[in-house]
Design a protein that fits this description.
The protein is mostly beta strands. The chain is 6% helix and 12% strand. It is elongated. The two termini are 24 Å apart. The mean pLDDT is 82.
């Protein structure tokens, strides 16, 4: 492996930081022991800038380039955004219904109190082979059957990811500004 640039971030497929590298896990480092690295990244990722600074934290995050692309929001180095979970309100969901059509079997000889083998509620495009009792045609079902559902809890909101080990070079060639 060639000598890295100081502050270079690489992805490794193993679960430890190689010699002279540190995991990008938001660790706080003393400036006095890492002056060259501090001069490159400063407090972009945290720290007080007097005695310490913070390494980038890729734990549970995805990398995003700095700057602004056409039609995109500008992003600064060290900026974090997004969330791991979000609770949707009913106003954020498109208006829709969940209709259930139930058909009555008028022939009493074909009615059952218990579904026969193979009979069940099935896809809406099919007729229902089993309806218990003597239901009223076009009856409104209980709200719990077709109404809103959910427990007002956040849902998973991350794209599919592969966990890898982001590490930053603590030693290496000081990059030339150009």
């Amino acid at each position: 492996m060639t000598t890295p640039y100081l502050g270079e971030i690489q992805i490794f497929g193993f679960n430890f930081a190689p010699n002279n590298w540190a995991q990008c896990n938001g660790a706080i480092l003393p400036i006095s022991q890492n002056t060259a690295l501090f001069s490159l990244i400063g407090v972009n990722y945290g720290g007080n800038g007097q005695t310490n600074f913070q390494l980038p934290n890729f734990a549970g995050r995805t990398a995003c380039s700095q700057g602004q692309g056409p039609g995109l929001t500008p992003r600064d180095i060290g900026e974090t955004f997004g969330s791991e979970g979000i609770t949707l309100s009913s106003s954020q969901m498109p208006s829709h219904t969940h209709a259930v059509n139930v058909y009555h079997q008028a022939n009493a000889a074909l009615q059952n109190n218990v579904p026969a083998s193979g009979n069940a509620f099935i896809l809406p495009t099919s007729t229902l082979p089993y309806v218990p009792g003597n239901p009223t045609p076009n009856a409104t079902l209980a709200g719990a059957v077709v109404g809103p559902a959910g427990g007002n809890q956040p849902h998973e909101n991350r794209q599919p990811l592969l966990a890898l080990n982001f590490c930053i070079a603590l030693q290496g060639v000081f990059p030339a500004f150009g």
